[in-house]
Amino acid sequence: MQLRADTKLKDILAAYPWILDEAAAIDGRFRALRSPLGRALIGRSDISDAAKRVGVTPEIVIEKIEALIRSHGE
């Protein structure tokens, strides 16, 4: 999967469902994705939206997601 700033979080989770469990490794504030509100946001948010919420660039989020994917051998 090619990750870009406009890649939807729901598409990432569809391809790599385990990422939700490891989202805190990207940034501790991503733990909020496991809350009911966070789950609602997943359906309509993209990487750029998530990056804004935690105060980093989309490129940083993409790098960290890609590193998690590589660490799982995918």
Helix content: 40-55%
Radius of gyration, in Å, reads 11 Å
Continuous helix count: 5
Total strand segments: 0
What can you see in these coordinates?
With 74 residues, this protein is mostly helical. It is 54% helix and 0% strand. The protein contains 5 helices and no strands. Helix 4 crosses helix 5. The termini are close together. The model has no long low-confidence stretch (mean pLDDT 88).
Topology (elements, then pairings):
Blueprint: H1 9-15, H2 19-22, H3 36-42, H4 47-54, H5 58-71
Keywords:
single chain; 74 residues; mainly alpha
Brief description of this entry?
Helix content is 54%, strand content 0%. The longest helix is centred in the last third of the chain and has 14 residues, at 58-71. With 74 residues, the chain is mainly alpha-helical.
